[in-house]
## 1
Amino acid sequence: MKFQQIDQFAAELRADTRAAVYDGSKKGHEKRTKLLFDEYPDPNRLRVLAGQVKQHVIENLDTYLPAVEAKLKANGVIVHWAATADAANETVLKIMRARGATKMVKAKTMVSEETELAHFLEKHGMEALETDLGEFIVQIDHDHPSHIVKPIIHKNRREIATSFEKNGLGAYNDDPQTITRRARQFLRHKYLEADVGLTGGNFISAESGRLVLVTNEGNSRFCLAATKCHIAMVGIEKIVPRDRDLALLLNLLARSGTAQDLTVYTEFISGPKSATQPDGPEEMHVILVDNGRTEVLASDCRDILRCIRCGACLNVCPVYRQASGHAYRSVYPGPVGAVLSPLLMGDRFKEKADLPKASSLCGACQEVCPVNIPIPDLLLRLRDKGKQEGLSSPGTPPMGAWALLASQPLAWKASLIGGRLMNYLPTKLVPVPALRAWEAKRTLPPWRGGEFRKWLHNRPPKT
Amino acid sequence: MSDDREAILGRVRSALAPLTERAALPAYDTEIAVLRQLLANRDPLAVFADRLRGVNGTALTDIPALVKQLREGKWLHGYCDPALWPRLAPHFGPEFEVETVYDRTRVDDYAFGITRAAGGIAELGTVILKDRSTSHRLAALTPWVHVAVFSRAELFVDLPQAIAALGDDPNIIWCTGPSKTADVEGILIEGVHGPGVQIALVLD
């Protein structure tokens, strides 16, 4: 039996990886929910409101983008536009070359994962070092992140200790505190030697041009305290209308992502360092990156552009918990990734068309989303898109026979009798491979067909 | 690249052209996001101290308490903003070695860094650093202990108030407790790249 790719990956997943992902995401979700409902009488009001704010932005990007550009320029920021991943990477390389820079320290940014910036720079002879602890471990392991905010949720401490040892970061020691101290000691000197600090951007205010960055480890601050040039790669959808909207979004982002009232470091940057400040960038660049976003904007799934990358939908998703992030083969895993990743593929949609199908449509993702994205609805639209494009669904039983039965009352009645016979027949003998595959992990409930018709005929008359 | 600018804006305009109606910006009061119950009828400084403790930081209101804590932690060598040092120096004993010039080539020498903060946020236990009043970004970040000094009058009650007062400083950072990570098996570890101990010294 051949499954679609994501299901196949989940079926072959190592048990300890599955356990690590399951525990990590479940704990994250429970803490988030407790915090929000302990603190606010109705957290859903906040989510709905934040969703409306972001929806307003994406439906008015034609005015907000030039407005943000003007504010950034007025703040002394050099603004670049990048239509594609290549253009974004080339822009970074050009800035570095113009400064004679060879060393970059990087904070965690999802858009640079999309463009594979670190690989690109290394290929061109630049050093590009990840500084977020999880991303650093991913980098020395030549691995991929498997979660938007917890990149190494799939790894245990023994694997990490082994790769530290292999990379000359001390003898094997799997104590998380020791691991963290070693990374601290190694990375602090790297920041101080670096020429350029690269960050993403969680929000940009159209009102003030402020770029807002949130981290817990302090790595983005270190990038911006040690280097003389700041480059920020920011997706074009990251805009908020006013500074005051940050009050709403910052409160929701930290609580949804990591169950904190606020991230440890929340940085508001509106240009190069002040003249009196000895540390930090004298030059600041913002690269506004499209890389498929305008195509998403043109689709009927544009609501996904509200996403603020908190990862709450991953943590709550029963499919993510079982399949792990790597099953999605994308920068964005989980429910948000099941919508965004195939769309960002553009005309190669087909390669990830299986992702929207890996969902029970239970709706938990929308319930936890801090910007209330109707993810189940968007998944259905993408399933439809796949169907319209005639893409096959390996592992999905053909529905043609069902359609035939459902449209012929007599055939339907006959099948009810057949169904009842199945209660007496061992299911192992049923010659339908899809059913047998399904049964390998579950037990088929006893057939109870015809109950609805019985009820319909015998219901008491309307009074 | 200017070609990319036109390409992106062109695609944005054509993507939005079919929309007959565009979502309006909702009217709302940021009060909705404030933990008002936590703040009601309480001294903001007491709330600030509680909230900072909640994220494993410490709020102090007098200099001798700070000196005592530094001594107990055996953090005896550090940096202090030269503008603050005259006021603090009389309380520091001879066992301390305090520099008022930060040297980035010796980051590992400084066990503590005492810098001026622009204020705090009671609702969250946050200290606010602004570029124009912080003597060194690195001195507030690289030592194991960071002491942020501000005055009681500079304490904001809630987050929306602090947002409204961001002003025109090019770089503002809010620090809420010590630097931390839970990347390794979800276990909380403090002191990743920034301070492992965050102290706020709130003076009158």
## 2
Amino acid sequence: MTTAAVDQLIDFIQTEIVLGSITVSADTDLLLTGAVDSLGVIRITQWMEDSLGVSVDPGDVTLENFQTIERMATYLDGRSAAA
Amino acid sequence: MSLGQILPRAAGEHGGRTAVLDIGRELTFEQVDHAAGRMAAALIGEGVQPGERVGVSLFKSADGFVAMHAIVRIGAVAVPLDPGSPTSRLAAICSQMDIGVVITHDLRRDALVDLAMSVSLRAVLGLCDSLEDTHTVTAASIGSLEPADPVEVDVGDPAYIITTSGSTGEPKGIMHSHRSALAYADNSAATFGLVPDDRVSDIAPHHFDISTFALWSAPHAGASIVVMPDVHQRIPASLSQRTADERVTVWYSVPFLLNQLVLRGDLANRDLSSLRLVQLGGEVIQPDALETFMSFASHAVIANVYGPAETNQCSRYLLSAPPVPASFPIGQPWSVATFRVAEPGATGPGAGGLNEGELWVAAETMMMGYFGETTPGNGRIVEQDGHRWYRTGDLVRLDSAGEFHFEGRADLQIKIRGHRVELEAIEAELERLPGIEAAVATPFRGSTGADEVVAGILPLEGFEADAFLDAAREVLPGYAAPARTVIFNSKKITGSGKLDRRALREDARAAAEGTIQ
């Protein structure tokens, strides 16, 4: 897993997505803590598609792949390996 | 009959049947009745008096259902606190409503730590471990209490308060009594034929009025509820999976969530044949998305449900097959509500009878009033012809078939994903932030396909957009915080020399939607 992807994700999610005064790190639970709302998840997937050029299948947008930034990075790694 | 008696009665009639399906636990009516009784005992133990406001700070869970029933059981008044709102806002609600006791759970522990630093709390109930500086009644100690019976209440007494933002940005508390809530529970259960075999989706958070169908109507009819946790609501494919797996029969949400299911819910791989009724309310329906949904849920009747939080649901329009009309009617009022259409801005409903105009509602399900109001409904409630009439601010049209249609607002209230927002309130909050001469706010349809808020800013020296967006998110609820900023370099002024907010809002919207550069 690339540190660069994790850093990019942290940067994007912290500045554009997070609600309230929560500071996110790679292993923050974004969904259970309420840091990210339903629109936030959509915007993260759109950002992955637009800025990273990864196509995200709706069936891949699961709790398992999106709960933390670490998991998103792992998912993205798998996507680019498959591509 | 009071709201506090719903669970004991259901426990007597349906004791061993499932009342609440949460993740990893299934509770019978007997179990939720006992759980509410134990939480009620804990509240009494903390000296909570009838009429006292009690905060509820919980994510979507069986805990929320139990907490709400526990509070009304002892005649206290439940105030659900939005988990998506910043601490400053929740603290303002607690101060305004003199809330000293809050029910919560471990997932909200950090939020409670923050809240306890902003307001003085007498007790926090439901955490696993005690807070450092605030008296805590742990979940374990509550679990060992003897359940308390419901106390006698006057059905005209307050039961719960839904908070929304007024046009000044101050929280406005919509206060319902046992009577208005039970009138809604009775009529909604009867209208939609709720039976014990129904499995009702529990989606909306309790600070959102459409949650009261799963909260009161379902147990009132002996039906089960299927809790849709916050995480599932953020992940449409998981939301549709849970709906299919748990064989939900009655769905109730804002149209936004249904649109998400259509776009990202993997519906082609879901069996939604159990759905018999889909209630949608809180904002305007997108016909194409709904038609797609109906093709995957062919047994479901669609109900477009109308009613401000002040009146509860008071009309609905049923559709059993496509096509979805471009203007989906809100239908006709049910038996306990009366509509009158008057000239917009009129001081009362008059004789009504117009085919187009502003809607006034009289209903048994209507709120008592706003918390701390100085005049009835802060000027929005008028007594006439033996009824209390509420001025909705909604513009409606009556069609030739006798069905009402929603045509927009008489003021600047908008709906963002079903949440009610006053544009002036957002603007007032934004203008308190540093670096700003003036701010306008308006909704726009972004690339997500959902409505979001854009802020149009007339900046002062040193304005910084990122810092501004961060600061805005610390004072506004998530849905009302701007997703985008548009900077104006020059003012627009009206003929009378004031800032032309209407023109600036239009410019901000156009810029955010990319229709002008």
## 3
Amino acid sequence: MDVMVFAFTAIAISFAINIAIAAYGIFTDKSLLKKLISLIIFSDTLAAFAVLIGFRLPSVLSDYPSPPILTNIPESVDYLEEISAKAVDPVPQAFIITAIVINFAVFSFLLGLLLLNYKYFGSVNVSVIEEEAGDEVY
Amino acid sequence: MNMQVEWWSNIALATLMILAGNVILHKSALFGNVFKIIGYIYILLFTKGVDVFSNTLIAASSITGVSLTFYTYAYSKSKYSSISLPPLIDLFLISMILVFRSGTLIEFITFWLLTELIAFFLIAYDYMVSEDVNSMRASVKYLVFSMIPTDLALFIILALAGFEDAFTKHILDLSINISNPLVLVVIILGFFAKAAVIPLHFWLPDAHSVAPSPASVLLSGLMVKMGIYALYLLSSQIVDVVVSFTMMTFLGGLTAVYGAAQASLQRDLKRLLAYSTTSETGILSLIAGLYVLSRDESFITAIILYSLAHAVYKSFMFMDSGYIEVTIHTRNINELGFVSKLSPMQTTSTLMSIISYLGMPPSIGFLAKLYVFTTISKHLGDSVVYFMALLVLVLKVVVSVLYNAIYLKAHLGKQLSTKMFTGCSRRDEVALKTSCFTSSLYSYVIIIYALSVLQGRIIVQPGLVELLYATIAILLLVSLTLYPLIYIVLKRGTNGGVLT
Amino acid sequence: MNALPASILMNYLFAAVALSILGLTKHRKVLDIIALSASVTGLMLSLILMRYITSNGSITYTFGGFKPPLGVVYYADFVSGVFSLISSFALLISTMCAFATMSFATRKYLYILAYLLLTGVHGFIFSGDVFHLYVSVELIAISAYAITALYSNRSGNIRAALLYGIAGTSITSFLFLAVIILYGSYGTVNMADIALKSIFNEEYVPYSGYVFGDVSTASIVALALITWVFLFKSGIMPNHFWLPNVYRVTPIAGLILFTSSADLIGIYGVLRLYHVVFGDRCIISSFRTTMMSLLTAMSMISTFFSSLLVAKQVRIRNIVAYSTIAQLSIALSGVVAGVPEAVSGAILHVVANALGDALVLCGFTLHAWSSNKHMRKLGMVSISIGFVNLFGLLPIVPGFWSKALMSLGFLKVGNLLGVIVILLSTGLCAIGYFRYLTRIAIRELAKSTPPRDYSEKMLSIPIVILITVTIGFSLSIILNPYLLPIVINNTLDSTRSDRFIYNLLGIKPGE
């Protein structure tokens, strides 16, 4: 039980640190590629955070939470109540899978843009690109 | 409803005529201009405002329109060698006339904003034609310091009146409750910005001096009156007497003195006239403040007469400065001084106008000054404020003699070397000159209209009328001896004599 | 009729899918016809929706018949109807513009992306669900990045899209964080459910149960995060850095979409968030009040500085970019002023801004690319009407009425400074607008060579439509003085939290 709480706290703190590092990378790093990597770290941390939200601490019914999967089909009301008291919350997991799919699309698109960008400017460094582009206007 | 339709058809017909005149202008200058003049006379005869003040302003606008018709054409042709200016000037004037006769608040605001927008393009006209940066700078100054504060005031009034009242109620029947003194201060400052009263006066000299002369005529002669008209409308609403009276009177008085002093320091013809305009609007604002304090209707009559006199005088003066600019290519008084030799007729018109301005009979200026002085004197016993106002007025009149003399130097100066006319065909010069002369004549012709206004206004005070007519008669006699003197001076001026 | 919101969305989604499949084949004409007809259908559906809402009240549509908070729910009221209408209209204009100005190889991608963008925007507008909101924002964002990078052979486009993309993705991640925080504490992602529990946090709702733990801290964090995301999306200073870059390079057809749909979602989101989800009776009402005054101050500062920047610009795209920031900031200050007059003024203002920007951009293209004298003149007229509308001090343009309504609202809450800032910004923007106008009035723009597929006749159609709509809209306001009170009343209904909760959950709060 204490171990569980300790682990929970440790995970929460590590999430916070992860978010801080990622934000630092996004806002201060000069390299666009590293910005993108920080962004990926950031979104994955958030996904893990969502899993944590759906987690269930040990209760009287069981020492460990069970997965939200129905095994007895056709199900009965008693069985459903038992599952819903023991299982972790499945909704955040549904969120995550959606978010991951979206992030996959966005990141691959951004990577493509980054490649094109490298082709045009010969660098992924923000200041170099700014210098190269100059005051270019329509 | 029927009356409204009739009115709209009148104004639409006149507008159509004026615009058609502008189109004809491309084919035949004479017919086009005559068409436009007929349009303006139509407005003068058939357009009625909401009350005497707006009637007077409409009359002043339409006669300015008549005298500007040929003038604008000749000016535009000789200065810009195109005729793109007249339509813009006509649009400006028509939308101003529509402001003065608006029946509802929404109409008033619509045409007011339209007028302001056209004025912006008129001030920036030189930028559009020859990329003169000064004119763009002046128009931006006008936009920020005159247009926006005024629009702010109008928006607040619209919000306070409510949309339904703004659409349906007559503008004189509105009762807007401006209880918050801060809001009142913002509104009054907004209208001050239009009338160029301190603290928002500094845009006017730039804007009025860079605009083309016909535009300056309208800006200075009529557009500043929009601010005064709005103050007059405002004063009939429920306002805090102390705040509005204090602001109008003190700031107005300050502007009157400051504008007059500045005007006498200027050596640029148009800037001199522009500063004298701020001084005049200061006087008008001062009288409006006195009206708020005393609620004496005679002050309104005074404002009406004074506005009329100033509109006619300032129209002529700017036309004259435009004439000098077009024919001699300079506006600096130190370089001038020989206009009387080139064109005695122009000098005669100028003298006629200045006589009106200084208040000599039988001009409209005389009537206006007389009425202002007698009305204030009537209240002298009530409060020390009236005495102060009288002092300001006297001071202003003294200084105005000074700057009018400086202006006159351009015509009758010591300069002996004469430059020849350049860049202006003889025909255009004659057109300009004749228009100026006509305009200066109005100072005397319009007195008939003014007397009729007076007759209508002061029917309740028979004693004053008799007093007035007696004074007029006496001063007429005095002037009969004065005019030969002026004639002799003029004669000496044209003979190469010196007038200092 | 209940399925109307979803059907608008489905119309756009199916059009996008159909276009992307057909894009593989070589049927050029079919593609154009489908794109145009789908946008007309969308506009028709939006109009029907608007008509239905104004006569019968709001619409609630449950996906799959699941009652909220169990299923995803769409909710359409007057405000969302207006936003749907303006974005659908912009899509029509944008499609026509793309058809007239872009080569086929480029415009077939623009069609797909524009329809995806509109799908996202409608999902955002109608969504009654915070997570659905997040998904829609991501969909809008990725289509917007792609539209920015449409000319992939130009380095400027790629650079702008990349900066926009990285900044945008990192910000929308915070929206995801806010959503899971909300879910963690409220046990639901349904907006009505959250709204109900933020007022009565002891309330039990079937399927989502009670709230969990300390709701107020979680609400404060979520509110702050979501607000930041929305400010970024609408480019309110100091979150505006991406906007001028993007506006400088995006094709005109895409830009029309941005100013009238993608950039408005921030304003719409703030409206929903502060008036419906966290209404004035919620447990964090003191924080909400603080945030609202902060937003007012921020929007005023943003208005002022962006207007200053407008006054300095000489290029049309920069003018449009900064003026969009200024107008959206004004709209934001109206939204957070808290009286229905100001809110309806703000809504009207974004509509007027969208119309004005579209007029200016279309007119500019026509003016710069056409060789026909009459066409160039039409372009000039279009630019003038657009600028006068953005300037908005003449009652013949809608911009006047929005500013008048907002002034009325500000005076009602005693915010004289707000009125002054609006008029000051008007003046400063006018410097930029009218300087540009006077320049092109006399010294004509250097004529640039149009692409091969350019057809000036085709481009004049959307311009004529835009001019008609702009003038007609304001004329209808002038001729019918009761239109504005109707708008104000409907907006008042849309911003009432208890009505929202009742329509979605069937629970009257406090009973």
## 4
Amino acid sequence: MISYRTRALVLVSGTAVLVALVFAWLGAAYGVRMLVEASCFALIALGLTIQWGYAGLFNVGVMGFIAIAAFVSMLVSYPVNDLFWNSDGPGLLCWAFLYAAIGVALTYAASQTHRLGLPKKYRTLLTLIVGAASYLAVTGALDPAATLIEAEARFVGGFGMPVWLGWLLGGIAAGALGWAMGRITLGLRADYMAIATLGISEIVKAFLKNADWLTKGTLTVSPLPWPVPTPNELGFVMSRASYLAVTSILIVVVYVLLERAWASPWGRMMRAIRDNELSAAAMGKDVNRRRLEMLVLGNFIIGVGGAALITFSTIFDPGSFQPLNHTFLIWVMVILGGAGNNLGTILGALLVYIVWIMSEPAALFLFEHGANLANHMFGWEAPADLATRALQMRVFVIGLVITLVLRFAPQGLLPEKVVKYE
Amino acid sequence: MGETGILAALPMNEFVFFINKGLIAGLIIGSVYALGAVGVTLIAGILRFSHFPHGDMMTAGAFFAFILTLLFPTAGALFGLPTPFVLMPLAMIATALFAVGIDRVFYRPLRANNVKPIVIVMASIGVMLMMQGLIRLFAGTEARQMETGSKDIYRIPFGGRDIVLTEPQLLLILFTAAVVVALHFFLTRSRMGKAMRAMADNADLARISGISTDHVVRTTWIIAGGLAAAAGTLLALDVSLKPDLSFNILLPIFAAAIVGGIGKPYGAIAGGLLVGFTETLAVFNWGVLLRPLQPFVPEWLELPQKLAFVPTEYKIVIPFFILIAVLIWRPTGIFRGSLVK
């Protein structure tokens, strides 16, 4: 049995060697870029390890939470669009919001009519009718506003606030969405959370993709402002290195806080809830409330990491959010690195991300040469879309890694440290 | 004479349009969801986990049928039916064996290790990604037509305009009805069906009464795989064969299974139809039905031309909201399914 310390050492040095190889092979600019993206993924993975490793919550909607955080961050930090503010757009939007507020108030009032003596079944019917009518009124008010904004100003634009505020609010938005999900699904079958988060992430994506007046839709928003000087001012290596400094500080802060929290009575309570829900509940712990805490906290970190990731790419493209890249890749990082072990998660994120971006050229190389070989030997004609098909191989490999890790190494590379109290 | 007067005044055209675009479309997609949801609900009830690869299993079944059609293109002419439909039983058997094999390789070892159910759900997501990758690797990502040549179209005259139904749609409806009847007799009359119901109700009690878990599990996969293949093939026959269906069909199927109550096949069928109808009626343009009323309303009130509850691009929102509503108000579903934690 290899001791934990040796394992950690081997992993850290192995990752370091890999990073050094990438730097030597592909140059510093590429290497730093890869490290920045890997660090953003590490941040997201830390958020997910809180949910899965600490609380045993199954969140399959990481992509949606990243997308909503990235959108909020874009909205807050993107420069102000004067065309929009000078048009009739804001006024029309105000009307739509007013309609929405009135609609919500009326629906709520209708849902309380049983206090006036209305039988319950009529109350439900009345609430449904009032809700549907106000919904139609709001969409009716929003449609012309959206058309006008798209025609006159392309899209709403941003508020021109600092980027860090955008990341913070993005994290809060992701946390709030997670809170709503948790309120509905916690306490039911554990699978329901998986289904609900999967659904919400697809809906967030559909919304961002189609709400052209808010996000420019498929036309994409760029360039997103950076929290540090851009490559135009400092050159690629230096600007990316300063971005890396920002994300590294974030990781260190989150890591230290999590380690502290995990060693505290709060962390002990969380482990107790995860390992034996029944006895924790018998000791008077409010299991679902604590889980909700974990879900929101994890989502906040996922949101901040996601906002940082998309900000770094300088382009907000709702179509670029893929369940594979933004949900399942992160799952592989967490369960391979070691769920419930922060260091393992960070190392797992670095390792998996390096392998992941190297796998794209590798898969293309392999398939191209395989096709050539097959062509020479059997006269087999490769399909025209071989390149896109070759990349599907990565989907298969991600799935295979998930099933293999779960079966043969459920602890991951760095297992969770079991704390013993003497 | 008065009768024809009333008939003439009735907005027949709009009504037939509503039947075609609202009711029949809802019935078609609802039947597909129902066939898928039966499998999901049985797996969730008996094996206690949500089967995420179900959408891809449907696609895989459709591909089996597609390959068979390429191999025996003339089989359909023997019966006067579309070739893929004639070869569908073979595809169903293939998919059922495939499902049993996947269970052997991926899920059974985990069950034997006594892991938490949620870990098996995660493994099923791994299997889903593997299937997605393989299907797209071999078939690319573009949509295909299941059968070349035109589909037979039936027109039923109904007060001026025709109710239109294509042959694949008719076959889908008939097949679903046959499945409902067969499933009913299987579950209430046969030994294995009763054992499956017992297992879904109380697994421990069933086991100590001498019911073989292995047999029940195998039968569950056979039914789920076979019905998934049928649903996939019939959907592909009606529209087209798309390799990247998975999530878009998975969410409505889960919603249908949960609405109907986990472990309740009848509930799944009802839930599938409910989700299908709600989805089509929510994107249906109700403005069409209001149009004939225009002469009767005062001039200043202009009825909207387009009045749909949800734009088509947000269709995926509807099953989700049904799901959320059921989870909030009645987590056990309409038919009081099991609510194991």
